[in-house]
Amino acid sequence: QVQLVESGGGLIQAGGSLRLSCAASGNGFTINVMAWYRQAPGKQREWVAGITSGGVTNYADSVKGRFTISRDNAKNTVFLQMNSLKPEDTAVYYCNAVRFGSSGWNAWGQGTQVTVSS
Q1: Is there a contact between 50 and 69 (Cβ–Cβ < 8 Å)?
Q2: Strand partners of residue 57
Q3: 3-class SS at 15?
Q4: Residue 14 burial (CB < 10 Å; 0-12/13-18/19+)?
Q5: What beta strand segments (E) does 3-110 contain?
Q6: Model confidence over 25-64: pLDDT tens digits?
Q7: pLDDT of res. 29
Q8: Could you say which of 10, 34, 44, 97 has the lowest number of CB atoms within 10 Å?
Q9: What pLDDT is recorded for position 116?
Q10: Whose CA is closest to 59, among 82, 40, 92?
């Protein structure tokens, strides 16, 4: 089973920037989609951004223009650059990785806390 390890969360003032990283264990396989989700206290987990192995990206409207997702396929690592952070971005951020096909799988990281103070 692939394991995802996230890093980069923390406490930041509104308007600041943070960069999250998520590395998948192992190599020699293709991860079709890597994505970031987040879950604020008392709310459901929501999708934030995703990127395919070919580099196609998509963003939730709430973060479009402020967040940038990227990946290093050679290292099976995905990043989330978060700029112009707002208090409403406060949440636990989870990394997700999906491999399609008969030997596919869907893996989640343990989550990293991002707190934006006003």
Answers
A1: yes
A2: 51
A3: coil
A4: middle
A5: 4-7, 10-13, 18-24, 33-39, 46-52, 57-59, 67-72, 77-82, 91-99, 105-108
A6: 977 788 999 999 999 999 999 999 999 999 999 999 999 9
A7: 81
A8: 44
A9: 98
A10: 82
In angstroms, the Cα distances linking 86 to 15, 78, 93, 97 are 6, 22, 14, 26
* Residue 98 to residue 47: CA distance in whole angstroms: 14
Q: Give the three-state DSSP class for 88.
A: helix
In degrees and rounded to multiples of 5, residue 87 shows phi and psi of: -55, -35
Q: How far is CA 52 from CA 14, 33, 97, in A?
A: 30, 4, 10
- CA-to-CA distance for 79 and 50, rounded, in angstroms? 10
Rounded-to-integer distance, Cα 3 and Cα 73, Å: 16
Q: How confident is the model at residue 103 (pLDDT cuts 50, 70, 90)?
A: confident
